[in-house]
Write a structure and sequence with these properties.
Layout: H1 11-36, H2 47-61, E1 72-76, E2 79-86, E3 89-90, H3 92-104, H4 108-133, H5 136-147, H6 150-157, H7 163-183, H8 186-202, H9 206-231, H10 233-251, H11 254-262, H12 272-284, H13 288-294, H14 313-330, H15 338-357, H16 364-367, H17 373-387, H18 393-428, H19 437-445, E4 452-455, H20 461-467, E5 473-474, H21 476-481, E6 494-498, H22 508-519, E7 523-529, E8 535-542
Parallel strand pairs: 4-5, 4-6
Antiparallel strand pairs: 1-2, 2-3, 6-8, 7-8
Helix pairs in contact: 1-4, 1-5, 2-3, 2-20, 4-5, 4-6, 4-7, 5-17, 7-8, 8-10, 9-10, 9-15, 13-18, 14-15, 14-17, 15-17
Length: about 550
C-alpha cells in the first residue's frame, strides 16, 4: 500500500507527530463532549436506541424483560446474556455497555455518555489510521471534518442502528489491516480479521463496506497482494481465521438471512430508491437530524418541507472527487500517493453503489457505511492542493487562500447545523418518538410498582424496560400485528399507552381509546406533551367503578 511521510522519517519524528496527533484528538474529543453534554437527557430515549441498553441491563440484573420479537439470549452467570438483537443484528453494542453499566449504573445519562466515549474512541482510531495511511496533516484535517459532521456527531451520541460499534470495527479493522500489510506479521492480520468479523457480526450490512473496500483494494493493489499471498500465505490464513472467529455467530445463520432478504417473496417497497436518495442528500447537506427531530422521528414526512439548515459538505466532496480524479490521471505512475488516492475514490464509489443496491438500506445508519471516505477524499485533495508546487508564487497564495476559506466555511457551516439542531432539541425535549415525555412518565410511575404498563403501539416498551425499575410491562400490539386478539383488562391495575394518529403505527391504540370513550365512564385519559405543548402520547387508566 502507499507509504506516507512516516515511513521515511525516524522514530523521533514519529513520536513528535504522534504527540501532535493525540493533542489534536484531545481537542476534538473535548469538543464532542462539550457539544453532546446536553444530549445526556434530551432528546428522549428512542425505541431502537433503548434496546441495546435494556438487554445489557437485563444481564446485570438477571431479569429478562419483555423485548421485541427476534431478540436472542443465553444464560451465562445466571443472567440472560444477549447474542442477537435481531437475526441480522448482533449484540456487540450490548457487550460494550455491560462493563460500563456495571461500574456507573444503567441510566440514560450513562448510556449517552458511553456513546460519546465510543464516538471519541472511534475518532482517535480513525485519526491514527489516517496518519499512517496519508500523513499527519491529512489525519488532523480529516479528524476535524469527521468530528463536526452532523451525521457523525448525532449518531455518535444518539446511536441507533448500532452504528458506533460499526465505526469502532471499521476504523480498528482498517488500521490493523494496514499494520499487517506493512509489517507482514500474521498476528496483526489475525487481529484485523477478528475486528472486521465483529463488525460483520454487529450488523450484516457491514458486508457492503467489506465488499466495496475489498474490490477497491483488489483493483489497486491486486498484483502486489497476490504476490505477497504466495510468499506469506500465513498472513492471509490468519486474517481468514480471525474473521471466522469474530463473525462466527452470524455466519451460522448467514444463509437464512440472505434467503429472507433476497427471496422473491420478500416485501418490496416501491418508494425505496427515492427514500434512499433523500437520505443521501440529507446526510451530505447536514440536515438529516434536524429534519428527523423536527418531524418527531416520522421518516415519511421529514422530507416534505425544506430544511432551514444546510452545509456545503456534499459540494466540497464532489470538488475533492473531481480534483483527485484529475490528479490520478495526470500524476506519474511512480507517484507513491497515486495508489492510495485511487483506493479512496474506488472505495467511496463501490460502497455507495452497494448501499443503493442493498434492500431496505434507507436510513442514515446505512448510508454512513461510506464514512469516512468522503472526509478522507476532502483531506487528501486539500493537502495535495496546499502542497502542490507552483512556479507562480502569487497564484499559489491565491489557491491556498481559497482552500482555507472553503474549509473554514465548511467547518462553520457544520457547527451551525449542529447548533441549530441542538436548539430545536432543547426547545422540544425531542418530538414524537424522540420525546423525553416518556422519561417523565417513567419517573411518575416508579412509585406504583404493581401497575402494569401496557403498550398499545410501537415506541414505548423498550424505553420503559430500560428506564423503569422492574415495573411489569407488556406489548399487546404485537399480538394484534400477528392477527391475534389481545386481552385488554379495564381495571385499576393497568395503564395503557397510545400515540396520537400522526405517531401511531398500530391501529390498536385508536380502537381501544374509541371503545373506552363509548363504554367506560371511569376511564381517565391523560395527554403527555413535549416542551412545546404538543401531544406525544396518551395514558389511559381506570378508577374504581
Amino acid at each position: 500500500m502507499a507509504t506516507n511521510s512516516n515511513s521515511t522519517t525516524g522514530p523521533a519524528a514519529c513520536r513528535r507527530e504522534l504527540r501532535i496527533l493525540v493533542g489534536g484528538w484531545l481537542v476534538l474529543a473535548g469538543l464532542l463532549i462539550a457539544l453532546g453534554w446536553q444530549n445526556l437527557s434530551a432528546p428522549g430515549l428512542f425505541y431502537d436506541e433503548a434496546i441495546y441498553g435494556g438487554l445489557a441491563k437485563d444481564f446485570l440484573t438477571g431479569h429478562a424483560g419483555p423485548h421485541m420479537p427476534g431478540v436472542s439470549t443465553t444464560e451465562i452467570f445466571g443472567g440472560p446474556f444477549p447474542i442477537f438483537v435481531q437475526p441480522y443484528l448482533g449484540a456487540l453494542k450490548c457487550w460494550l455497555l455491560i462493563p460500563i453499566f456495571k461500574i456507573f449504573g444503567s441510566t440514560l445519562a450513562v448510556l449517552r455518555g458511553a456513546n460519546l466515549f465510543f464516538s471519541a474512541t472511534a475518532l482517535l482510531i480513525f485519526m491514527m489510521w489516517t496518519w499512517r495511511l496519508l500523513g499527519l496533516a491529512e489525519a488532523l484535517l480529516a479528524g476535524l471534518l469527521l468530528a463536526v459532521d452532523p451525521a457523525f456527531f448525532f449518531l455518535g451520541v444518539l446511536d441507533w442502528g448500532s452504528l458506533l460499534p460499526s465505526l469502532l470495527c471499521r476504523f480498528g479493522g482498517f488500521f490493523l489491516v494496514l499494520l499487517a500489510w506493512r509489517r507482514q506479521q500474521a498476528r496483526w492480520a489475525l487481529a484485523a480479521g477478528v475486528v472486521l468479523g465483529l463488525g460483520f457480526f454487529n450488523k450484516i450490512d457491514f458486508g457492503v463496506l467489506l465488499a466495496g473496500t475489498a474490490l477497491a483494494a483488489a483493483g489497486v493493489y491486486g498484483k502486489s497482494f497476490f504476490a505477497q499471498s504466495r510468499r506469506r500465505p500465513k498472513i492471509i490464513l490468519s486474517a481468514m481465521l480471525g474473521f471466522l472467529v469474530g463473525a462466527g455467530p452470524i455466519l451460522a445463520i448467514f444463509r437464512a438471512i440472505l434467503n429472507a432478504v433476497f427471496c422473491p417473496n420478500a416485501p418490496h417497497n416501491p418508494g425505496e430508491l427515492a427514500e434512499k436518495l433523500h437520505t443521501w442528500r440529507a446526510m451530505f447537506d447536514g440536515s438529516y437530524f434536524y429534519r428527523l427531530m423536527d418531524a418527531g422521528g416520522l421518516f415519511d414526512t421529514m422530507y416534505q418541507t425544506p430544511s432551514p439548515v444546510w452545509t456545503p459538505f456534499g459540494i466540497v466532496v464532489l470538488l475533492a472527487i473531481f480534483f483527485l480524479i484529475a490528479d490520478v490521471i495526470l500524476s506519474a505512475k511512480e507517484n507513491p500517493a497515486r495508489p492510495t488516492k485511487m483506493f479512496l475514490l474506488l472505495s467511496a464509489s463501490f460502497v455507495t453503489l452497494g448501499v443503493l443496491m442493498l434492500p431496505g438500506a434507507v436510513r442514515i445508519h446505512h448510508t454512513t457505511l461510506v464514512y469516512p471516505f468522503p472526509h478522507l477524499l476532502i483531506a487528501a485533495a486539500a493537502v495535495s492542493v496546499w502542497n502542490s508546487p507552483r512556479k507562480n508564487w502569487p497564484l499559489q497564495c491565491v489557491a491556498r487562500g481559497l482552500l482555507a476559506a472553503c474549509l473554514l466555511f465548511l467547518t462553520l457551516g457544520e457547527f451551525h447545523v449542529i447548533a441549530r439542531t441542538q436548539h430545536l432539541i432543547r426547545e422540544t425535549g425531542g418530538r414524537g418518538w424522540w420525546s423525553n415525555a416518556l422519561v417523565k412518565f417513567s419517573e411518575a410511575t416508579k412509585n406504583h410498582p404493581g401497575l402494569i404498563v401496557s403498550s398499545l403501539d410501537w415506541g414505548f416498551n423498550e424505553q420503559l424496560e430500560f428506564l423503569a425499575d422492574g415495573s411489569p410491562l407488556e406489548e399487546p400490539f404485537w399480538q394484534a400485528a400477528f392477527g391475534q386478539t389481545p386481552e385488554l383488562p379495564r381495571d385499576t391495575n393497568h395503564i395503557y399507552l397510545a400515540h396520537p394518529p400522526e405517531f401511531s403505527l398500530s391501529p390498536l391504540g385508536a380502537q381501544f381509546m374509541e371503545s373506552v370513550s363509548r363504554a367506560n365512564k371511569n376511564a381517565v385519559v391523560q395527554p403527555w406533551r413535549d416542551g412545546q405543548g404538543r401531544i406525544v402520547f396518551y395514558s389511559i387508566t381506570f378508577t374504581a367503578p
